[in-house]
Amino acid sequence: MPLASRLTSHSDSDDDSLGTLEGVEKPADDESVTDTHTFRLGRVLFGGVLAFNAIDNLRNLEERIGYAEFKGAPEPDRTVPAASVGLLLGGLGVVFWKLPAAAALGIAGFLAGTTPVMHDFWNQDDEESKQQEQIQFLKNTALFGAALAFARVARRSK
């Protein structure tokens, strides 16, 4: 099967067609991918970092609200705390795999709502600011993709 077909295939039977990676465990026949140590580590890292960022937002709430005001975010006095609590709950939900699809979709919603407002690199005149905002935008885009992937895995593992 050509590489492009293998990468876009949606069949679970194609899991072995790309070969095995060293150091990445494969689930036993009687376990789900969500039961593997590798998956658990991935979700703890992903959710834990996001929960940590949410706690940091809440600890520095006035600063975060001020930055959101500067960026033109709507009602930052209400949206910043609410979004931060939502991110915290989503991160912890992924870490502990409790309501994982809702948690991952909550994270995706946070990222979809905040990223274009807070990291609008296309509106920056200063080249250094533009580059920093683009890096943050692309990082959040990758996190958004990971959140969607976690949501999909969560829905399949019911």
A few lines on this structure:
With 158 residues, this protein is an all-alpha fold.
Structure, described:
This protein starts with a helix and ends with a helix. It has helices at 3-8, 37-59, 61-71, 76-96, 100-118, 127-156. The protein has one domain (34-156). The radius of gyration is 18 Å and the shape is elongated. The model is unreliable at 11-19 (pLDDT under 50). By secondary structure, the protein is an all-alpha fold. It is built from six helices and no strands.
Q: Can you tell me the overall shape?
A: elongated
The overall average pLDDT, rounded, is 88
What is Rg? 18 Å
Q: Would you count the extended β strands for me? A: 0
Order of helices and strands: HHHHHH
Q: Outline the low-pLDDT stretches.
A: 11-19
Overall structural class, as computed from helix and strand content, comes to mainly alpha
Helix content: 55-70%
Largest sheet: none
**Percent of residues in beta strands?**
under 5%
Span between termini: 30 Å
Q: How many helices does DSSP assign? A: 6
The structural domain count equals 1
Task: Give the SSE layout.
Layout: H1 3-8, H2 37-59, H3 61-71, H4 76-96, H5 100-118, H6 127-156
Main attributes of the structure:
single chain; 0% strand; mainly alpha
